[in-house]
Amino acid sequence: MNIFTKKIILIFFLPFHNLANKALPTFVVHLMEVSNCIKNKQYKFINAYYNFSDDKENNKFTVLQDITPSLNLTSQNTVLTKNIGWKVEPVFSGKIISSCFFLKNDLTVIPLIREFVDIPKECPVRKGVRQIIRKELLSTTRPSLPFGCWMLKHELKDSKGLIVGCIKIVVIQSILFTLEEMKKQCH
Questions:
Q1: Which of 16, 30, 42, 126 could form a disulfide with 172 if both were Cys (CB 3.0 to 4.6 A apart)?
Q2: 155 beta partners
Q3: Which domain holds residue 118?
Q4: What confidence score (pLDDT) does residue 40 get?
Q5: In sequence order, what E strands does 26-178 have?
């Protein structure tokens, strides 16, 4: 193929390529809520607040004391979806694993959370306040989970099995142009 033929192909291909890109839907993961699982309860290890406003100053994830492997903390997730009411998704729920192992090795929840708040890739997780930096994530790549309203309840337990931290996260996974309708269903 000579240079002239390549230029002709590019002249014809680029307009169609640009049209195809504009036709792709924009997928969105929209953060609705981040809070303690029990209102007005102060936990020993983690605390969070998000009010889905643009006021980033109030949108925080706080680690109240260092989380290290020697503490032997475990994590247990409960994942729910909402249609008419909340329904537990057993495939994603119930397993109890080391919190440090979960932080380092999880391939679905933790990478998505890192898009919203700066958390380390492994333990230790140092004491401190981290800002929740965005309210939504836009992409042209279709997400792996089905569209809808999702809730993650993440319990942090000590070596005796007592809950020492619990964060509830509610997100909508949707196409951008249906987001407003999904927000009404998710409340």
A1: 30
A2: 76, 166
A3: 26-186
A4: 67
A5: 27-36, 46-50, 60-63, 74-82, 86-88, 96-98, 128-131, 136-139, 148-157, 163-175
* CATH label of the domain that carries residue 77: 2.70.220
Taking the C-alpha atoms of residue 142 and residue 28, their distance in angstroms, rounded to an integer, is: 9
Q: Computed from CA positions of residues 53, 56, 58, 60, in that sequence, does the dihedral angle turn out positive or negative? A: positive
Residue 106 lies in a domain: yes
Q: What is the mean pLDDT of each run of 10 residues along the chain (187 residues)?
A: 50 47 81 84 81 70 93 95 92 93 92 92 95 90 86 94 92 92 87
The shares of helix, strand and coil residues in the chain, as percent rounded to the nearest 5, are 30, 35, 35
Containing 22, the helix (H) or strand (E) segment is helix 3-23
- Rounded to whole angstroms, the Cα distance separating 77 from 62 reads 19
Q: What is the pLDDT of residue 16?
A: 46
Secondary structure class of 159 (helix, strand, coil):
coil
Report yes or no on 6 lying in a domain. no
Domain count, the chain: 1
| Cross-strand partners of 120 | none
Tell me if 5 is assigned to some domain.
Answer: no
Cis ω before 124 (30° cut-off from 0)? yes
